[in-house]
Design a protein that fits this description.
By secondary structure, this protein is α+β, with helices and mostly antiparallel strands. The chain has four helices and 18 strands. The chain has two domains: 23-176, no CATH class; 186-292, no CATH class. The protein starts with 27 loop residues before the first strand and ends in a 7-residue tail after the last strand.
């Protein structure tokens, strides 16, 4: 992985496979976990019914067995939960298995189970990146940080603003746990798709799961219109930001109201349109809202 979670179409939860800059160091699936001379840099799948498969790169030395020859290897590991917008890290262990077990245990204690590992590494560091919908990505900083740079660029290419760097953990850091527990609350926005569009956005916020937010938004839209409804945007622990570019209506999901307004402005600039930023809806504030693009005043 990752993106560790997000909403239908916009909520995608998946960590990525990363290829290193040299073909000889390309990332590859390692179902049994890292072996001698390997470092786990992420997983593919691992959410929404997709089985997680570890992804490794050659580390150029240092093995999953703790190494040898008098060289000390500090191992770190990061765990995540699909409904959390932060991670749990354990490090400064002399083997990958212990680091992974400690990170998973901390995550499962806080979240009540359901956590998964996103990667183990030794004698280097791992960067955690967050996207606009609250999804998390990871990039290994070994080999000059090529994986981290590649992942940050890939994450940022899928949205209007650059993705945010959340953490960079050295393998010798003992532990990190989010406080308070970063359990997501989700919001979804639905609108009439195609013929029958009524210029309104139906928003359901404060839900504990992606599916519940989607269902509530689509039900509100369907109750107000006989036309076909579709999810327009969704976010976990963030905001739904409606806006107009000239007469065109649009919506974007972002982490904060500030970033939502900046993303809307970036979209308007790309379209060479006059921008009208309207009210933002926070996913952490429970409610059912009908946003009328044509009646809303600019912020």
């Amino acid at each position: 992985m990752i993106r560790f979670s997000v909403l239908a179409g916009l909520f995608v939860a998946a960590l990525l496979l990363f290829a290193a800059p040299q073909p000889a160091r390309a990332a590859y699936p390692c179902p049994g976990g890292p072996g001698p001379g390997e470092v786990q840099v992420g997983v593919s799948g691992g959410s929404h019914g997709v089985a997680a498969v570890p992804v490794c790169e050659r580390s150029g030395g240092g093995g999953g067995d703790g190494g040898g020859g008098g060289v000390y290897y500090a191992f770190g590991s990061v765990a995540f939960h699909a409904d959390a917008d932060d991670v749990w890290m354990a490090g400064n262990w002399n083997n990958a298995d212990t680091a992974r077990r400690e990170a998973l245990a901390a995550c499962n204690r806080d979240m009540g189970g359901g956590c998964a590992s996103i990667g183990d590494w030794n004698n280097s560091s791992m960067t955690i990146i967050r996207d606009s919908q609250g999804g998390l990505w990871n990039g290994w900083n070994g080999q000059g940080g090529a994986s981290r740079k590649r992942v940050l660029a890939e994450c940022s290419s899928k949205q209007l603003l650059p993705c945010e760097i959340l953490h960079s953990f050295g393998a010798d850091k003992r532990r990190y746990s989010p406080r308070p527990t970063a359990r997501k609350l989700y919001a979804s926005a639905a609108w009439v798709y195609g013929e029958g569009y009524d210029g309104r956005l139906y928003i359901a916020s404060g839900h504990r799961s992606v599916g519940a937010a989607n269902d509530a938004a689509l039900a509100a839209c369907a109750a107000a219109s006989a036309s076909r409804c579709r999810i327009a945007a969704g976010v976990g622990n963030g905001v739904i930001q409606p806006f107009k570019s000239n007469s065109d209506t649009n919506v974007v999901a972002e982490r904060t109201a500030k970033r939502g307004a900046e993303a809307a402005q970036a979209d308007c600039k790309r379209r060479a349109g006059k921008c009208q930023i309207q009210r933002a809806y926070d996913s952490r504030i429970p409610g059912a809202f009908v946003h009328d693009f044509n009646a809303a005043a600019a912020k």
